[in-house]
Amino acid sequence: MERFVASAKAHARSALAVYLEVPDLAAAGVDIDDDVALPAVSAEIGELVRMRDEAETLRAQVAAETRRAAAVLRRAGLSSRDVGEILGISGARVAQIEREASAV
Q1: CA dihedral 2, 7, 13, 16 (to 10 degrees)
Q2: Domain boundaries, the chain
Q3: Separation of alpha carbons 28 and 30, rounded Å
Q4: pLDDT confidence of residue 92
């Protein structure tokens, strides 16, 4: 969550510098107190960010495992359509995975 607050602070400083028509706030003598106090939901926001990060990690793992399983099944002689049906993806996606693997 700190990265979002830091990003918001940076954007606010940049916007203020543009508004004041100065290249640098400190050089222009502008002192900003940017202590951000979020409402009581900050713990929930932190948990949401953690869950999203966890979901993205899991998504990447599932994609990698799907690629691996598709390759194993295709080497076993199954058609792209059959592999797709087994893995719950389309045969076209299986073919795309194969093309991507051969391009690497």
Answers
A1: -130
A2: 54-104
A3: 6
A4: 97
